[in-house]
Amino acid sequence: MAELDDFAHALEKLTGDPMAESVAGTVTVLSASEPAPRGRFQECALELLAEAPGVDERIVQTAVVTRPQSWPQVGQVLPARVSVSHPGAIDVDWDALGQ
């Protein structure tokens, strides 16, 4: 598995992906749109505080498509990769929502 991770990292660097130089961190949900009364999967608009060692804290706006029962909650902390060189680039572990 480590070889696959190494290959993915090399590919990110080769293609200029902003996540090539990212570090492990977290995002805290600052705000989340409300789910509609019906719908199996819905888009949730989010404002997140991204934090990681060696990176200035930053507020990032993004969205995720999820089930209403797994809706992100204000104050929830999720694991994420945070780009060192591109302030708005994050890769959140959305599986941590419990989908």
UniProtKB/TrEMBL annotation:
Lineage: Bacteria, Bacillati, Actinomycetota, Actinomycetes, Micrococcales
Domain of life the protein comes from: Bacteria
Name of protein: Uncharacterized protein
